[in-house]
Amino acid sequence: MPEEVGIVLFGDVADSRRDSARSSTWLRKITAELDRSYGAERMARFGFTQGDELQGLLRASADPFAAVLRASLDPDYLSMRWAIAAGPIDPGRGPTTQRTGPAFLIARQALAEARRRREELIVRTGDAHVDELLDGAAPALAVLLDELSDRQREVARLMLVLGLRQSEVADRLGVARPTVSVAAERAHVTQIEGLARALKSLLEDGLARVSAATAEGAAGPVGTA
Hints:
The chain is an alpha+beta fold.
């Protein structure tokens, strides 16, 4: 059976032991929401482990950073540490928590590395050059999301997750449009959106470079007549 490439997403709830019941309730809500939002772009249902770790398996064409945004901008947000890895996965069925393959091992190693480095987002594509760029950029997205106030998080969610314009956000919240504009600016909504888009582009570039290198290796050296 041909090898299949997917994107593995792990999200570890920080300090979940302090309130494991709250963590489980929130993760149940988020996994259901992610299942709905990704639809056919997921290769398996989202799930979470007893250790309060979210797990997702997406198609190589999907945007895993949309999951980071959706979870981090949720009104009941819990601080998380994320690891994203693109690579081969083993054939199988069932939810993500029952799947395996090289990409899962890479994601597990990335999550352990994130803990050691005290960073909240690490991304691995398998291409050394791209991964070095991602190491410099990906943690910044998590920092921007983690530093939002409750109101800023709400405004960012309405704009980045629901796709509302500032005037629509103002109507939804019952406030003046300039109030939303100030909150969006202080929340760095434009920067968050641009950074998430750039990270997705880097991820796609890494996947393309790995695919090209694999194809070249499979073809072998070209002989001379």
